[in-house]
Amino acid sequence: MTSLNSPKLVIFDLDGTLVDSAADIQIAANNTFEELDLPEQPLNQIKRWIGGGAQVFVEQALNYFGKSEWFDQTYNLFMQFYRALPAERSVMFDGVQGFLDCLKLANVKMAVVSNKPHELIEPILKHLKLDSYFEAVLGGDSLPKKKPDAAPLLYVCEKLNVKPEHCWMIGDSSKDSQAAVNVKMPFVGVTYGYALMGSDIRPQEVPHIVVDNLEELIPMISVKTNVYA
Questions:
Q1: What distance in Å separates the CA atoms of residue 195 and residue 74, rounded to the nearest whole number?
Q2: 9-20+91-220: CATH homologous superfamily?
Q3: Secondary structure (3-state) at 128
Q4: Same fold, 9-20+91-220 and 22-84
């Protein structure tokens, strides 16, 4: 474990980091599969396909079924079902609320950078009463490139006027850790997410830690000041 400096900005992944949205994604996916006469899938399998955004999710599912040529129809159906109920069963992971409140008290800026389509992020944040915490929210279609590309993190840093080395990227996947590496940003990995799935996402190129609960990070947040020399 590497010690990290208290940040001026924390950038969060969404699915598998802040929010357990797998049950809603499963409903949309299985409704889609039923329409296409494909077999319903258990939650553990659905989780394996989360992390790259809706298009990647559909691509991986269709590759699993050997039906990659069905992409357009499947994607449109999936988005239709997911838009209808984006946050019916989604919940915050344990420790999220306490950590966000700590950052707010310490005047640390916060942002969300997800690969999920932007139109689906706001309803989830509003449903969970999290939307007021974040000064910037990017989806996988907000910019021409998404994580692990550096562009989304750099965009947020520039928008909020914070240098990458004074930020943390928090996520559950190698896409998150590689994005942090690409902008030389300290990284915090969470063990409870979907994309980790037993893999090691610790990036040796930047300062990093891995936690089981975001409240473990609270002692590292400076409430007195977040001004760097």
A1: 22
A2: HAD superfamily/HAD-like (3.40.50.1000)
A3: coil
A4: no
Q: Which CATH class is domain 22-84?
A: mainly alpha
| CA–CA separation, 210 and 26 (whole Å) | 27
Rounded to whole angstroms, how far apart are CA atoms 121 and 139? 7
Distance CA 33, CA 37 (A): 6
Every domain of the chain and the residues it spans? 9-20+91-220, 22-84
User: What is the pTM assigned to this prediction?
Assistant: 0.92
Residue 13 annotated among the catalytic residues of the structure = yes
The radius of gyration of the chain from alpha carbons, rounded to an integer in Å, stands at 17
Q: Please give the structure tokens belonging to residue 93.
A: 């992971």
Tokens 């993190």 identify what position? Answer: 153
Ranges of the chain whose pLDDT falls below 50: 1, 197-198, 225-229
pLDDT for the residue numbered 200: 65
